[in-house]
Design brief:
By secondary structure, the protein is α/β, with parallel strands linked by helices. Strands 1-2 form a two-stranded parallel ribbon. The chain has a two-stranded parallel ribbon with strand order 3-4. It has a two-stranded antiparallel sheet with strand order 5-6.
Length: about 240
């Protein structure tokens, strides 16, 4: 539930290890109260792009938010990375009933997340129990995961799986940040420091040029130049006449 900063630091510059962490961040004001749990920390050196942080803005996330994060970010990236082995750091402090974690992930949700990950790496998976602060919540969640590993189907999730706007906003920000490293994620991050950014054209300008060319060819129309500083280029091909 809190950021796995130790694992992140261990593999931060390793291109052979993909690390994904879902955790309460609250702008860096939740344990361990460090900035490196933010979504902008993506690895460094040859390991850049191999670190994925999904930092929730607040407590209270549950099945809907975690399933949404898996569908939108975790599974697409994990599938594209195509690992040889999946290791789950199973700290069940996001489980329902864990007061310190403050979230509401059900045993069924843990089972479904495990089931999704089992199709990666040809099912080669290790689940390592790491923590949690409520023994009953840990036991129920660990049992659900173990049953899934034994090929028992997960229990049904609740019908209402509508993620909060806060979670959707976080996921969209993560996708935009990580899109520079992964082909599967959209929208792509626009790098305004890239020299080619300023050489791009807006879509409506391309359409106007195309329409102007068609009118010139079919009706012998000619674009009229607007000789006024500041708007000449913007309105090019906007006014055509016979």
């Amino acid at each position: 539930m809190h950021h796995g900063n130790g694992i992140q630091h261990a593999f931060y510059d390793d291109p052979n290890v993909l690390y994904i962490s879902l955790h309460v961040f609250k702008g860096g004001n939740f344990y361990p109260n460090l900035p490196d749990g933010d979504l902008t920390y993506c690895g460094e050196g040859v390991g850049e792009g191999r670190n994925v942080n999904i930092p929730w803005e607040d407590h209270g996330m549950g099945d809907a938010e975690y399933i949404y994060a898996f569908q939108q970010v975790v599974m697409p990236i994990a599938t594209e990375f195509d690992p040889d082995l999946v290791i789950i750091s199973a700290g069940f402090d996001a489980a329902e009933g864990d007061v310190l974690g403050g979230c509401h992930v059900s045993p069924a949700c843990y089972a479904h997340m495990t089931h999704m990950l089992m199709r990666i790496a040809r099912g080669k998976m290790a689940v390592c129990l790491e923590g949690g602060y409520n023994l009953r919540s840990i036991a129920r969640s660990a049992l659900a995961v173990t049953r899934t590993l034994m090929l028992q189907p997960p229990d049904r999730l609740a019908e209402n799986l509508e993620p909060t706007q806060s979670a959707v906003r976080t996921i969209e920000q993560v996708k935009r940040q990580q899109s520079r490293y992964w082909k599967c994620l959209y929208p792509k991050q626009v790098d305004r420091n890239n020299p080619s950014f300023h050489a791009t054209k807006r879509l409506h300008e391309i359409l106007r040029t195309y329409q102007s060319m068609n009118l010139a060819e079919e009706h012998h129309m000619t674009p009229l130049a607007i000789n006024k500083n500041g708007i000449a280029q913007t309105f090019e091909h906007n006014v055509v006449a016979t």
